[in-house]
User: Fold this.
Amino acid sequence: MTLTADVAPTPNVTLAPDDEEEKLIAAWEQMGSTRVRASIDHGELPPELVKFAWNWLSAKERISEKHREAVQSAQTKAAARASAAAERAASAVELQARVAESADRRAKLAIAIAVASAIIAIVNVVVTYWLAGK
Assistant:
């Protein structure tokens, strides 16, 4: 019998030979867990197959749970990577903001120096003109 490595059928259940078990499992795989569970609940399965069916359903549920955990773990890792990337991006934006503020201060200082130079030049021209006219 091949369910999974960690699932063993109940020893007191008498089942058909292995190839019939495989056919039964293949049929259940096609039906899906929900329909198999409904067949058990409605008494549509022979009593000697009920424990085997429950074992198969349990194995399917464990496999499904492991898959969910793996997907969730991958999503958690992806979210952590995205968070780290967002933090790096935020740090880069903060650095760019500081550099822009520094450039802005230097530009304002350059404008102030230019205005002062212009005023000094105007005063120099006025004084020179005034002294030349005397």
Summary: Helices lie at 18-31, 33-41, 47-132.
